TrEMBL record, chains A, B:
It comes from Nonomuraea guangzhouensis. InterPro entries: CBS_dom, Diverse_CBS-Domain. It comes from the Bacteria. This is CBS domain-containing protein. Keywords: CBS domain. SMART domains: CBS (SM00116).
């Protein structure tokens, strides 16, 4: 069993998309993460759900739990709507050491190891400069765990 | 909106449970992660799905992508079944700096920041020495992202 047997079409966002659109995609389609693509449709970043969520939380609240406690609900709403003007490009973290991107011949063990190393429940599959789709952690688990 | 309004019952595993049981729970119930509890039912570890997956991949395959490529399917099966004798305790990583555990009064921003910092799409909610349930990233996103 290889990546080609496990992959499925997966929605993408461009780096120029509004952050709020990325968050909406994640929420509505119940996705484990997002694939951010360049103008050629190739992955420039793969974000785990927790990283997309981080885009919606001000930096100072991520660092200081006490501050996040005292911010009341109205303020929280304000933060979320203040995202309206920001794009994914502005919010994506600096390029990590390794992106969870592989080719269709990747083995089950490679996929699992890649997800574990990058802590991303989503691997993009690229062949000859074209994004074929993605393998999700759930798709992988469903196939490899004996029921 | 606070953690108490977003939490739901969530299955747990004990540290003595076989790793394969933990993997099966994750796969069958489509969970974003697992709550590992002690004998008193209190969380000792919260594992993201990618961390549970890591339990099923031999260390040398996680570190060396080239090795994972050459391991063929039969060997992969052997690795998975070789887990049969291992317990969650043996596989859980050393205690991290911070566990995604909070109390029922945590705000939406606190929950989001905690998930982002710990990169775990799951926060356990504890009150007076009792596990009340968990807030998942999806439950949080569904409530805070305007549709």
């Amino acid at each position: 069993m290889r990546a080609r047997d496990l992959l499925a079409a997966f929605p993408t966002v461009t780096a120029d998309a509004p952050v709020i659109e990325a968050a909406r995609l994640l929420a509505e389609q119940d996705l484990p993460g997002l694939i951010v693509v360049d103008d050629d449709g190739l992955p420039v970043s793969i974000l785990a759900g927790t990283q997309v969520l981080a885009l919606a939380v001000p930096r100072y609240c991520q660092d200081d739990p006490a501050l996040a406690r005292v911010v009341d609900e109205k303020h929280a709403d304000a933060f979320l709507s203040s995202l309206a003007g920001r794009t994914v490009r502005q919010a994506v973290p600096p390029r990590p050491r390794e992106l969870p991107v592989t080719d269709p011949d990747a083995t089950v063990l490679e996929l699992a190891a890649l997800m574990a190393r990058t802590r991303t429940p989503l691997v993009a599959v690229v062949e000859q400069g074209r994004l074929l789709g993605a393998v999700t952690l759930q798709a992988l688990m469903d196939r490899v765990v004996p029921s």
